[in-house]
Design a protein that fits this description.
Strand order of the largest sheet: 1-4-3-2-5-6-7-8
Largest sheet: 8 strands, mixed
Order of helices and strands: HHHHHHEHHHHHEHHEEHEHEEHEEHEHH
Strand content: 5-15%
Number of strands: 10
Number of helices: 19
Radius of gyration: 29 Å
Distance between the termini: 39 Å
Helix content: 40-55%
Length: 476
């Protein structure tokens, strides 16, 4: 039941679900406390809303986006809390007191300051966004001024909104103690910090703090390409969770002959790229990508079939090769789009046979069996194993796009496979490694994956208390 609720609410864990429930209950309590009025209930409910909001943002919960889509985003939640505080003041018979007018003026000014702050943040980010992202590429002709401190730009809007805390705390304290000085001190702190945040950003909006324009940066990229003359490119475009498809080829690219380069298209994927000594050039814009000179390339390798491949496939001097990111019996392994490449490289005979059976237009003479470079470090062993308990890897692929239940063993047999391995008369160690996309299309696959993980966790807890396994772990 809880797992179902977690999936429907798009939260990642039970703790996120608890924070979401707390947020949903705290705001009605806040409204009730303002109407009664009850300052202690208001203070407790208000603290709960701050804490729950902060936690969900820290976890980057999908629920935050859901709230934004139904028009109860973070600014609205802060404004609602402040309006309820003003209502509380009125219900406490303070509507004619200076503290009431001071609180109203504070919140009006505070929200007035959000606009210039947000505009500055957006302007600085826009001016510091280069047309390319690089690693291991020497763009010596480009001089980039130092960026603002991360504290000023990272989650800047959320931090700015939270500057209302001193004012809210000060007003609440003033109601409790009857001393307006607390409210005035909190209001002054909130407005002072908000103005300071804007003043700290202003220097970074000046012309000399801006990065060079796109033309200057792309000219430096062209100069580097002419000097480096790349011969083998790994070209990749994909979704946010597809970085593993390029990471699996990094070691291979470091070992190829010639001058390798990794060309990417999504700037958000570059931080997810593993460590590599190969030059990385990410060019998000299609027009920028096609305007570069790629004539030195002799081979371009494609780990995925995606629409943006067309921007590199147009280069006539390169041989275009589809290498994929794994073989299976899913339709993805015999995609008709593969006809656009000069060659398709498969791990072995099974990959060639799949294309022959699928008859999607990929000619047999265009297929090369090249093995799987990622398996090269694995060495055969002929001696007696050091540990008598064998290790079994269960790595089911994902459910694919077409809904065919035969795409993955996880749906029809996954739980039985794991249960029998865990309950086997002769004990085994089980390593479970599902596909990163498991559950992306079929939520039933995600549910099975969660149950399998739970089974393994429970078995691991039982074995941790078993003297036999304690001895085996010590001997390993």
């Amino acid at each position: 039941m809880i797992s179902t609720v977690i999936r429907l609410a798009r939260v990642g864990s039970r703790s996120e679900l608890a924070a979401a429930v707390l947020l949903g209950l705290a705001f009605p309590c806040l409204a009730l406390a303002a109407l009664i009025p009850n300052i202690w209930l208001f203070a407790g409910a208000g603290a709960a809303t701050y804490a729950a909001d902060w936690y969900l943002h820290q976890k980057k919960s999908h629920l935050v986006n859901r709230l934004n889509s139904v028009r109860v985003g973070l600014p609205i939640r802060f404004l609602l809390r402040q309006l309820l505080l003003v209502l509380l003041l009125a219900r406490e018979n303070l509507a004619e007191q200076p503290v009431f007018y001071a609180a109203v003026a504070c919140f009006l000014l505070f929200y007035g300051l959000q606009a210039p702050h947000g505009a500055l943040v957006a302007f600085i980010r826009l001016r510091r966004t280069l047309p390319v992202v690089t690693r291991n590429v020497d763009l010596h002709g480009v001089r980039i001024p130092d960026a603002p401190p991360r504290a000023l730009l990272h989650r800047a809007g959320e931090k700015m909104l939270h500057l209302d805390l001193p004012a809210v705390a000060g007003v609440v304290t003033a109601v409790v103690t009857g001393r307006a000085a607390f409210a005035y001190a909190g209001i002054a702190t909130t407005l002072g910090l908000a103005v300071l945040s804007i003043l700290l950003l202003l220097p970074y909006a000046r012309r000399k703090r801006r990065v060079p324009g796109a033309g200057t940066v792309l000219k430096a990229v062209d100069t580097w390409l002419r000097e480096y003359q790349p011969t083998v490119a790994l070209y990749f475009s994909g979704s946010d969770d597809a970085a593993y498809q390029v990471n699996m080829w990094l070691d291979t690219m470091e070992q190829v002959d010639g001058r390798p380069i990794i060309v990417m298209r999504e700037r958000n994927l570059v931080p997810k790229l593993g460590d590599t000594a190969v030059p990385v050039l990410c060019i998000p814009g299609g027009q920028h990508m096609m305007a570069r000179d790629w004539s030195s390339l002799r081979v371009t390798l494609y780990p995925a079939n995606v629409g943006k491949n067309i921007h590199m496939l147009r280069v006539p001097t390169s041989k275009h090769v589809f290498i994929g990111h794994g073989d299976s019996d899913k339709l993805a392994s015999v995609n008709p789009f593969s006809k656009v490449y000069d060659e398709v490289w498969t791990a072995g005979r099974a990959g060639r046979d799949r294309y022959a059976l699928a008859d999607v237009g990929v000619r047999d003479e265009d297929i090369a069996e090249v093995g799987r470079p990622q398996l090269a470090p694995i060495q055969t062993w002929t001696g007696a194993p050091k540990n008598p308990i064998p290790t079994i890897l269960y790595a089911p692929t994902w459910e694919g796009w077409d809904g065919n239940p035969g795409n993955t063993s996880l749906l029809l047999a996954g739980e039985n496979i794991v249960r029998r391995l865990l309950d086997a008369p002769e004990p085994v160690r089980l390593v479970y490694k599902p596909h990163p996309f498991t559950g992306l299309v079929n939520k039933k696959a995600k549910a099975v994956d969660e149950r399998v993980r739970a089974m393994i966790t429970e078995a691991a807890a039982r074995r941790a208390a078993d003297p036999r396994w304690i001895r085996e772990a010590a001997a390993a």
